[in-house]
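Whiteboard transcription, Tuesday session. T.W. wrote the structure tokens on the left side:
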């Protein structure tokens, strides 16, 4: 009788853990609920900065940054892989995350081609003062 009870309890624990895991996946990745209101303006500001850099618009870049780091990152990224920077600026974005740390909003995204292949890793953009006058303070990939 104790073996049967132990087997029943083990099965119940496994079912309960599986149900908890499934519930957690649904609540983590569900598209329901309101979207983050800062996600779209942060994405637009990050992509505009990349587009300005691709055009060589130094005044546009200077107006969009709040520190020297994004300018240095852009120079390096354009030298090493301008096609990837172009994809991040103009391709169809797939959001990774939007995080908030005090007055800083961090948004990340990837870009995919028509064949659903990722064109590179995520780009991460940290911005201040979103949505009023977003200024990029950090870029990374």
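and on the right, the sequence the group agreed on:
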């Amino acid at each position: 009788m104790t073996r049967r009870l132990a087997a029943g309890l083990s099965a119940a624990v496994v079912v309960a853990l599986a149900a908890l895991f499934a519930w957690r996946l649904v609540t983590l990745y569900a598209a329901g609920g309101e979207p983050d209101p800062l996600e779209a303006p942060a994405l637009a500001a990050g992509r505009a900065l990349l587009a300005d850099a691709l055009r060589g618009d130094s005044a546009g870049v200077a107006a969009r940054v709040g520190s020297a780091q994004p300018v240095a990152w852009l120079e390096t990224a354009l030298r090493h892989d301008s096609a990837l920077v172009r994809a991040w600026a103009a391709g169809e974005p797939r959001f990774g995350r939007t995080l908030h740390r005090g007055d800083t909003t961090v948004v990340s995204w990837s870009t995919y081609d028509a064949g659903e292949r990722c064109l590179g890793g995520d780009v991460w953009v940290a911005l201040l003062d979103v949505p009023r006058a977003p200024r990029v303070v950090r870029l990374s990939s």
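Someone added at the bottom: Residues 25-31 have pLDDT under 50 and may be disordered.
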